[in-house]
Design brief:
557 residues; Gyrase A, domain 2; Isoleucyl-tRNA Synthetase, Domain 1; four-stranded parallel beta sheet; three-stranded antiparallel beta sheet; 20 helices; 13 strands; globular; binds arginine
């Protein structure tokens, strides 16, 4: 809302003076509500600050939002009519609840998001966890801005490695073991294949032959592959269930098997294919290495499937924009994908949302050789620790399991999303589970404090003293609340969930320091209602911010 006033005043000034680029900004805490720096005009118009001020004043002073203006140190300071503004912001939040901040700028345009996308028969890595968490938040944020989001899990379920897996299973595998512990067992077989392959080069040829046959729908191999996939998916689904993440489609790489010939034909038809040393490639010029489309033996590749997937998404979901939430190591791959479809004459936006590593004690975290065997164990550990903390804090709490789950998962998600996505993140369960500091539990706890106030008192919207909001301690927070829609918009523009994370953190901090200073449940009824409406609005915005990040808010903990 302040944003709107800011723009309104800026437009007024610009129209009046027929110039562009006049700055109307929010100065640091307490100085004024808005300010216009006058230096540029002092210089350009060769006037004193007072003279410039006198020209600006009549344009602004009659605006209905403006209460007073004054000149201080070369700034034109604006004080807004705080009561009406506060009342407008808070009643809006009260009425719109979680819909506060919803926008229509997306205009129903379709955006496809490709995230999580783990490789079957392999463990769900920490990189996949980051992709899942970031992708899920972006999906919520885009939807709030009015986009139609199609969420896709591009499972890594195709490729020569499945030839290897099948050969390994047929030679050394055992059904019961795989059933008991699918991913670990299959991974073991895969590692064994690599070890034995060094002694026995024939194995590699066998694996290629098997994959070729699989691509041509060989029945036995398809059966084995389907089984591997189902077993792996079962494990992945448990993880998604814990994280509260859902996808519209689980169309993995194998889904494109029957769509590959058409792609290769199209590339050929458009004169883009070259044979290089028996392999089929697309030459991407000086700046990029050529992209491999078919191996010497005719098998397709990761890239071929991504081209097919992009064309399919364009046709099926009517979208030109695909966000790929994938780690930094695939930067080149997505540049090539963009280049290939450009050469094909399409105008797709291949939007690679890349992100940094996960570190434990400053070292790259790996679920392989590390302390944890599976990522699921890490998550379970977080939930266990949250449970202990809650049982100690509030032993009579109902639904302790549900709360522990929300807190443990929330801690992991927030620890990831509070950082700029390109930076490496630190994974320290103890730190992220603290109830103080920049953590998920701190936010959930702040919201719970408000929930308990609201449980004990009921808000009467007909008797609210709006004038009391003019006081700085209130008004600073109300301004912050007014910024929420704008924060969500910027977080969408920058594909940066951390904008929202940081924002709700500072909102919760402001609330907690306010709460340390002021009583909410006061005698005077109008003031009490004003206080209740005020904290209710803070709760609404914190909870909606958490929801956008994919974190559950709580009413008790
Ligand atoms: N399965 C891949 C991996 O784990 C990620 C896939 C990302 N999406 C895509 N369309 N290439 O590295």
């Amino acid at each position: 809302m302040i944003e709107t006033i800011k723009r309104q005043l800026k437009d007024k000034l610009e129209q009046h003076f027929q110039i562009e680029g006049i700055v109307v900004e929010e100065p640091k805490k307490g100085l004024a509500d808005l300010a216009v720096p006058l230096f540029a005009f002092v210089k350009a118009w060769r006037m004193s600050p007072m003279q410039v001020y006198e020209k600006f004043e009549p344009v602004l002073i009659h605006d209905e939002a403006v209460d007073q203006i004054e000149l201080t140190n070369g700034f034109l300071n604006i004080y807004l009519k705080r009561g009406p503004l506060a009342s407008a912001i808070l009643t809006m939040i009260h009425e719109q609840k979680g819909n506060y901040g919803n926008q229509t700028i997306g205009n129903g345009i379709s955006v496809a998001m490709d995230y999580s996308s783990p490789n079957i028969a392999k463990s769900f890595g920490v990189g996949h966890l980051r992709s899942t968490v970031i992708g899920n938040a972006l999906k919520n944020i885009y939807k709030k801005m009015g986009y139609r989001v199609v969420s896709i899990n591009h499972l890594g379920d195709w490729g020569t490695q499945f030839g290897k897996m099948i050969v390994a299973y047929q030679k050394w595998g055992n059904e019961a073991d795989v059933k008991k512990n699918p991913i670990m067992e299959l991974q073991k077989l895969y590692i064994r294949f690599h070890d034995e392959e060094k002694e026995n080069p024939q194995l590699e040829q066998d694996a290629r032959d098997v994959f070729r046959a699989l691509e041509q729908n060989d029945e036995t191999y398809t059966q084995l592959w389907t089984w591997f996939k189902e077993e792996s998916l079962r494990e992945f689904m448990e993880m998604y269930d814990l994280l509260g993440v859902e996808f519209d489609f689980y169309t993995g790489e194998s889904f494109y098997n029957d769509k590959m010939d058409a792609v290769v034909e199209e590339l050929d038809h458009k004169g883009l294919l070259k044979i290089d040393d028996g392999a089929t490639i697309v030459d991407l010029g000086e700046d990029l290495p050529p992209a491999l489309i078919k191996r010497t033996d005719g098998a397709t590749l990761y890239m071929t499937r991504d081209v097919a997937a992009l064309l399919y998404r364009h046709q099926t979901y009517n979208t030109d924009h695909v966000l790929y939430v994938v780690g930094n190591e695939q930067i080149l791959h997505f540049k090539q994908l963009q280049a290939i479809t450009d050469l094909m004459g399409y105008h797709f936006n291949v939007d690679h949302i890349n992100f940094g590593l996960v570190l434990i004690d400053g070292k790259k975290m790996s679920t392989r050789g590390g302390k944890f065997k599976r990522l699921e164990d890490v998550i379970t550990q977080a939930i266990e620790s949250a449970k202990e903390a809650i049982a100690a804090k509030n032993p009579n709490l109902k639904d302790q399991d549900m709360v522990a789950r929300a807190v443990g998962i929330g801690a992991i998600i927030f620890n990831d999303l509070k950082n700029e996505k390109h930076s490496d993140i630190d994974f320290n369960l103890e730190n992220m589970l603290k109830f103080e500091g920049q953590t998920g539990p701190y936010l959930q706890y702040s919201s719970v404090r408000i929930a308990s106030i609201l449980r004990e008192n009921s808000l009467d919207m007909d008797h609210v003293d709006y004038a009391s909001y003019s006081e700085n301690d209130y008004f600073e927070i109300i301004k912050l609340l007014g910024q929420f829609p704008y924060i969500v918009e910027r977080s969408k523009e920058n594909n940066a969930p951390n904008f929202i994370a940081r924002y709700i953190l500072s909102l919760a901090q402001s609330f907690n320091s306010f709460y340390g200073k002021h009583r909410i449940n006061v005698e005077e009824l109008m003031q009490k209602n004003a206080n209740l409406l005020f904290v209710e609005s803070i709760q609404t915005v914190i909870n909606e911010g958490l929801r956008l990040l994919g974190i559950q808010s709580l009413s008790e903990m």
